[in-house]
Design a protein that fits this description.
The chain has nine helices and no strands. By secondary structure, it is mostly helical. The radius of gyration is 38 Å and the shape is elongated.
């Protein structure tokens, strides 16, 4: 048998073993520095979580110390009733206006006014406080002749009428088409 033939695989194996050992040692040093970095990040996150939990506790305590809102506290901030000025409305709009006539809202006619009255919406103020979604659901419930209308501007128009902003209402309505922008 030839000795060099046996020696070559042994030497190659030994060199590979030494290189593997050295590479493993180098990687373990990098892992230690990586672990230290990750540990520092984890510690920072834990500290941040403790600070946030303390802040939440403080805010909960502050909230618990505040008086609870009751129905009576809301009635104190009820909207101011604005008197209706028929002469001013007629002067600006060029036609006689009755108080809380929903038909002055561009897009509302007698049948839609009756539909809203049946649903409990009888004043400009009530119409101004009603969401577009609720208005649309009332229209949808009235049938397909009503469902095609778009009430997206009606609450705003009613609010202007309720507040007596007749000039503003007229200017806006001049730019509307069937109650739509």
């Amino acid at each position: 048998m030839n000795i060099p033939c046996i020696l070559i695989p042994i030497l190659v194996g030994l060199i590979c073993g030494i290189l593997g050992y050295l590479l493993g040692k180098m990687n373990s040093r990098n892992d230690d520095s990586l672990s230290a970095s990750l540990q520092a990040d984890l510690d920072a996150c834990k500290a941040n979580t403790r600070n946030l939990n303390a802040r939440i506790s403080t805010l909960e305590a502050d909230l618990a110390a505040k008086p609870k809102a009751t129905a009576q506290s809301f009635t104190a901030t009820a909207p101011v009733i604005i008197p209706f000025d028929a002469a001013l409305a007629e002067n600006v709009l060029g036609k006689k206006i009755k108080e809380n006539d929903l038909k002055i809202v561009e897009g509302i006619g007698p049948k839609i006014e009756a539909l809203f009255n049946d649903a409990g919406i009888k004043t400009w103020h009530e119409l101004s406080l009603t969401s577009t979604e609720r208005l649309q659901s009332i229209l949808d419930a009235g049938g397909e002749n009503f469902a095609m209308h778009n009430p997206s501007t009606w609450a705003k128009q009613a609010s202007m009428a309720y507040q007596g902003k007749w000039k503003e209402l007229k200017d806006w309505q001049d730019n509307l088409l069937g109650g739509k922008e």
